[in-house]
């Protein structure tokens, strides 16, 4: 570092310092994700280019400076993250062109790119330029949803949102008729994708389409808005009530059947006991009769002896 400074001071003293001029025709470059971008940078120098030094740096919107490309007297260094999609300048010492190409641009590649050119003894003048790169991304397919009771007189809110898109997409709602012709909507809409329909009526039922758009493209989604949604809720409630009634009837029938079964068993048991009692009574009377008859016979036998 010190030797370089001494050399520059010495060259300035002897009057050999020349001017170098670095320029670019585009201070701002716009590109869509997935596309290739050309970052133009040219320079003018009066000195021989055997000591030519070129460096490209990149400063993302939320990070520190990263080196993209380095050239020194014919030697080239390209950092690993850029090797597979970087095209360096061809023969920059001869063409005086330091332009580069970066392939397959992504949202993370947006930021400020700086082209620096040094060529001893040309050390004075304008030695660098900045290029601001915007990477646009078309909106992803939005998600449409409906909130609220889709019934006449109620408030219904339609929501539309895309997960990706740069710059941030804006949203518009339109109503489609049977011929898929767009018709104006009567609800209050916002650019963030929210539309409110207050006191919805049958005239506002139908198919609605949301358009998410930015400078890179447009994406759409549709949603059906009709009273069938509310009828479905009512039908579900009716079916649930009917099922509840059926369940109650089954429980009552089971209890009644169980009680009846127990009563039937009790009656059968009682009848069995009565039959056993009636069967035992004649046997006892027969035994009494037989005993009485035997006694009488014994008494009659004793009388003659007397």
Description:
- This protein has 306 residues and is α+β, with helices and mostly antiparallel strands.
- The chain contains 4 helices and 20 strands.
- The strands form 5 sheets. Strands 2-12-10-5-6-7 form a 6-stranded mixed sheet, with no helix packed on it. A 4-stranded antiparallel sheet has the order 13-14-18-17, with no helix packed on it. Strands 16-15-19-20 form a 4-stranded antiparallel sheet, with no helix packed on it.
Blueprint (SSEs and pairs):
Layout: H1 2-14, E1 18-23, E2 28-32, E3 37-39, E4 42-44, E5 52-60, E6 66-72, E7 75-77, H2 80-83, E8 86-87, H3 92-95, E9 100-102, E10 111-119, E11 122-126, E12 128-136, E13 143-147, E14 156-161, E15 170-176, E16 182-183, E17 188-189, E18 194-197, E19 206-214, E20 217-225, H4 228-302
Parallel strand pairs: 1-11, 2-12
Antiparallel strand pairs: 1-4, 3-9, 5-6, 5-10, 6-7, 8-9, 10-12, 13-14, 14-18, 15-16, 15-19, 17-18, 19-20
GO cellular component, one term: plasma membrane
Membrane topology: Single-pass type I membrane protein
Keywords: Disulfide bond, Immunoglobulin domain, Membrane, Repeat, Signal, Transmembrane, Transmembrane helix
